[in-house]
Predict the structure.
Amino acid sequence: MQNAVEGACAEAGSRDLVVSGDGSWQKRGFSNHNGVAAVISSSDVPKVLDIERLSKRCTVCDGAKNMIINFKYYYRQAIVRNKTNLDDMVKAVWAIYKHKSSTNSDPYHEWCSSAYCGFWKALEKNENLSRVLNGSTQNPNESYHSVLWSMAPKSRSSSGTIIDFCVALSVIVYNDGYQSLLPLFESLLGSSGTFTSSIFQRLDQQRTSTEARTKSKSARNSMDSLLSNINKTHDEADDSYMPGAY
């Protein structure tokens, strides 16, 4: 999208761009939770400049509620199991906080027990130890929506993570074509393959021809409408023949 913004600014000769914005729900009806809003440049070749996935459901909030419930349970267990030893009780309570605030880069499991801590359980497994034995306008918007929802059909429910993945792929395809996915495939899989490259090239050709037909049809309709208005104006202005006048 950064390349799309730079290209739009270069084409317009200014950073004050005319854009179109529109949103779309992932599924039909009012029960859907996921939607996408896109801002697209109003240029000869529209490009997606910005994209945002929004949701009525907050998985982080739901997870936080469950975490609070778990904290209450763990806190009670720490008190019950160490009710005769204040030092062990304090240590067990702090172990809850340290365990939950730990990350892969900053682990704080020194007070945890291998009975419940997945960090220590993983370290105790032979297969894990063996690994280290010897040292990874709206028309452009609607056009973009059609690309996006072809990857995440409205008839099928999808999670927010899947929508994010489809949004990223659809922006790449819409802005630069299917062949722009080849470097991504190569970085993930090591190579893209001859058949994959051939199919992506064919998809881009089909997309280009479809757009050309659509623009040609739109141009013909505009020309027909213009000629119709011209003929209508000419007929109204032409008084060479008036019924009943002669």
